[in-house]
Amino acid sequence: MKLRLSCICFLLTLAGCVVPAPPGFTVVESDGTRVEAYGYSVQAPGKGWFQGKNDYGVIFGKRNPPVESYHAGITVTRMPSLTDRKAFNDFARKKLGEGSDSFRYKVVRTEVKEEEKNGLWLVAGRLDFEDAGAVNAGTNPYLLTCNATLFVLDPQDHERLVALWYSWRGTKLDEAAFNAAAARFFDSLQKSKTTTPLPR
Q1: Can you give the pTM of this predicted structure?
Q2: Cα separation of 39 and 189, whole Å?
């Protein structure tokens, strides 16, 4: 969770950036581009997004001036073995619930749903919060941040945790468009034919 939040916080700094891509990032050149991360792959959210890699996966960002921005990513990390569905569900729910209200962030929506797809265990979550301390809030009292998250575990590979997220930040949310874009990104997840060993 800390890794995901640090990635999101880093991408939020892109709010003041313009093309060309920030250091360490490249621009996604075409729709349909797929990226690999330790035995899994996803389709980049779209042409023109920024794309960057870290030790655990791939992160994406896009900005629509003056305040709207988008962020997405996939990480694959090593974790203690979770040998049954309940243990995985409890672990994922705990991670999704780690966000809490503070003087700056006010949580306004939380949702968690457990699913299975293509033999994989899934726990999907939604965490929305108002950020009253955003540096690019301008004349707005706060910026709304909506985070959709998906935890994935292959019951045949209990030590490899996959986390995907899709996030929007701005003042006027198009709920239907956000849900469709997040679902499209999450649904693009595929297992690769080969598995790259995780970093130690």
Answers
A1: 0.84
A2: 11
